[in-house]
């Protein structure tokens, strides 16, 4: 599958006249709890040539594609990516730290990760994860629950707990996140992961009170601790320098 993904990346470069700097897996495959029929969620950062950035007119800064092979692609222009990094955008930070990398300009991504650590805003990321957890809370309280919903809620609620306890951006790999959960939750979640790995996305699982209650209790914990978290200390000069270096090919 990696060869097919790399082939598609090259096709995008030729078709759109861009250079892809970094391409990774996002979503359930990157998190480590994919179902057999899960899509491949490919996320990438790209750049145009210098003339593109010298125009006074607004231009598209997103490239998207979907293929018959379940490749779901979405990429952001380097300028858009850096502006989101400046805001400590949690989904973009997850791209940067994805455990599944298809292609990378190593010098670029090493520098980007270094700046990402400096831009990390605990409070901004926390509110992102709180909001996402809330989006799944209602479905997690139903008598029949899609395991996908359980795992999305667990991932985001544990990410919030991680920020409070570790004061760092949470790991993308779900099993690393799970380390901070109580033993009984770990054991139940690992059982559910085995089930999810053998079932399609449409599978409905009987409500697990222990999981639903943990999600609700931890969400409350995250909300109570959110206001005490720090904001980012971004360096606008460094972000500008990365942008100039990339588009000028220095």
From TrEMBL:
InterPro entries with a match to the protein in the record: NT_sf (IPR043519), RlaP (IPR018775)
A single MF term (Gene Ontology): transferase activity
Protein's UniProt keywords contain Transferase: yes
Keyword flag Signal: no
Alphabetical keyword list: Transferase
PANTHER family xrefs: NUCLEOTIDYLTRANSFERASE
Species the sequence originates in: Flavobacterium profundi
Protein's name according to its UniProt entry: Nucleotidyltransferase domain-containing protein
